[in-house]
Structures are given as C-alpha cells and as structure tokens.
Amino acid sequence: MLPYKNHQEKLNLIKSGKLSLLENVKYFLDRAEEKKDINGFNFVFKEDALKSALDIQKKIIQGNAGRLAGMVIAIKDVLALKDKQLTCSSGILKNFISLYTGTAVQKIIDEDAIIIGKTNCDQFAMGSSNENSFFGNCLNPCDLTRVPGGSSGGSAAVVAAGLCDAALGTDTGGSIRQPAAFCGIYGLKPTYGRVSRYGLTAYASSFDCIGPMTGNVDDAELILSVISGFDPKDSTSMNIEPALSGKDYEQTSKYKIGVPKEYFAEGLDTEIKLRIEEYISFLKNSGFEFVNINLPYTQYSIATYYILTTAEASSNLSRFDGARYGFRSDYEGSLADMYTHSRSEGFGEEVKRRIMLGTYVLSAGYYDAYYRKAQQVRRLFKNDFENAFKQVDLLITPTAPTSAYKLGEKSNDPLQMYLGDIYTTSANLAGIPGISIPAGVNKQNLPIGIQFMANHFQENKLINISRFIENNFKNGK
Asked: What CATH architecture does domain 7-227 belong to?
C-alpha cells in the first residue's frame, strides 16, 4: 500500500524526507515483476527509471522540479518515445524503434515525470478487450479470468494493479473510459483537439485522443493540464487554454445533469443501472438538478462509428507495407506479393478485419451509400449534443453495458464486442470530453464505471463533479 493518495501528497513526503523517490520507483519495478502475469507491460524501462529517480529527487530537494516531479507514469505502446520500441502491440512493428518523442509524452517528461514502461494494448488500438495484442492477452487485475477492456487495457491494468502512479491511454471510441470502468480507475477522454496527437500512431485521425488514466481525480486533472495545449505539429490542435477546476466546488451544486433515456434501454446490466440510480439519488440530495433528455441518434452510433473509423484506418494503415519500415515477409515473389504477405503476416485478425471494412466503405459504388452518409449522420450526433448542452451542464450515463467479461467470451463474435462500445462512441463522434469514474463493485466484486460527458472544452465540469463524488460519496465503494 502506497503511503500517499495523490501526487501532491507524494511530493510532500519526498520534500520532507519521509519518502525516497528511488525506493518508490524500485517498489513499482518490483511490483511490475511480481505482477507479470497480468501482462500489462510490453516493455519496462528499469535502468532509465532508476536513473530518472535519482536526478529528479535532487531537483525536488533543490526546489526546481516540474509539476509532475517523481510521478511514475506508464504510456500506451502507440505513443512515440525516442529510442524506445513503438510496436502498437503489432507484429508488423515488433522491432521498430521510434525516432522521436510525441508531444504529450515530451510534456510529461519536461515536467519531470518518470516513464516506467510502455503498456500492452489491442493492435493499433483496435479492440475493446486487449485480446488482440501481438504480446498476448492483458488480464484484468481485479479478476485474472477477465479482460481489462480495451484498447488501453494495459494502461488501465497497470494503474489498477499498483504498478505505477498513472498512465497515458488513447481513446478513439471509448478506449480510455471502458477499460477504466472495467478496472475500477479514472479515465478521462479530453475534447478532440485539446491534446496534441503528434507522436500518436493513428488509428482514426478524426477520433483519436490522448488522456490520463489514474487512481484519483487530482492526478487526472494535473496530467491533463500538463499535456493540454496548442501544438503547431498537429493541425487539429486547438489554441485554447485548459479550463480546469482549480478545486473550486462553488459551481458544482448548480450543475444541471441530463439523463439520456437512450442510454438506459434494454441491454444494460441491472446492477449497473441500479448503481447509477444510487449515484443520481445521492447527487439530487446534494443539490444537483436532473433532467430527462433525448439523444435520438444514439441508435446509429455503432454503425456510424465503425464505418468512419474503419475507413480512416484503411487509409492510415496503408503505410505499413513491408517496404518502408516495419516487418517484411520472407516470401519470394513480385513486389505486390511482398506487400500482400507482409501485411497478411504482420497484421492481426482484428486489424485486417477493420482494414477490409474500411476499404469496402471507401470503394467505388459504396462511398456515397456508406462513408458519405455516415459523415452526415456524424453531424446529426453533434447536433444532438449541442441541443442537449443547451439544457444541461453534464450528462450521466453508464460507461459500459456490463462489467468486465470473461477472456474469450466475445472474441469469436466481433459484432457483439462492437456493441459493447454503445455508450462511449458518441462522445468521439461529437468530439466532446468524457470521464469514467469508479463506482464500486457488483456482486461478483467486479468494478462498475459511471460516465459523465460535457460540452466541448468543459473538462473542468467533469473534474468538478468527479471530485465532488470522490470526496463525498461513501456508499457502494
């Protein structure tokens, strides 16, 4: 058990001499070795982490350390870190070494965070269970027979298992929030454009977001404030100052919260529904106002999401051809044969499935029927949320329709697995921020997650409501 509950307490202990950062890092490294069975890390940077601990402890004592000084952070293996492996958990990049460091990663390094390693994930962040990794399944530390969620399953698992202070994940359709719910931690997806995507290997460029996965609200807020901001290297980066909470509760009790009926229809686990109702009752008694609202296009979210993201994936992953970098097949034949065998042998089944789907919807004769129409429906999703946020400050929903399911339970039925993203994909379609917060456990002792969504660039409201619940709600934990 760590002697601190968040980063500020950790810093205070180091400054007072009650905690050695070097010993703290050794503790995490030992834990990572002890918990190898969850397969949360693709790579652990032991020597680098120990050296950083010595250097940063000196800076803390001297009083010139950064805002994340000594925070031990894992990063998802789709994020670039110079001179380290960047595999995206795929065989096609199994030996690839990054030539540069991505912006979000560089920002946490500049603020004196310690990067302990790179985490397992579904190949190229395509999946909802972390069962599609070249490095094998990642397991849920709450129950080793179950999935940790995906695609940021490794990031969620290492935080939940106490192998680091926090992690960076990526969210294209729920890949931060859903594994956070399955593993019982906080997962924050920022507004699209809030955090630079430079250095993030693209799955679907108009959807992908980088965000924090933590054990508490304060650390999520702190990391988000560090990685946010305009970046000229990313054309989608927005020049908007972070609107974070500053631990100000004054506005919290005035929030009006919407309950979209479409998120509580058939298919939602009864225990999750009852738990959300319990939280709604608590918040009502605390002075929050609740309003029933409609998001009528929710029923089209899965179809729209998978048409658009697979189309973008088909385009983005065309660069992995065996000729320029990455895996090349030993097959002897024509150039076309080399391309075909390199991609067939290097990509996993789920990646190939999504590339084929995307190529299909972009093909002549189907482009207008599928891709163009999905783009039009995406606009309607944005209208849905714009109308909703004229009425309310926040939306409350389940994060996932069930708790973590058994390994292999859905891997042979891709459509069933895709439907598990029903509550998270809408935020990515609309580009709005969302957070999953831990809401206790069910009768099987599996974590339950509750999602809040806010309007564009209003992460402060997500932080405020999460902190209010973290500090005041005691039942069900």
From this structure: Alpha-Beta Complex (3.90)
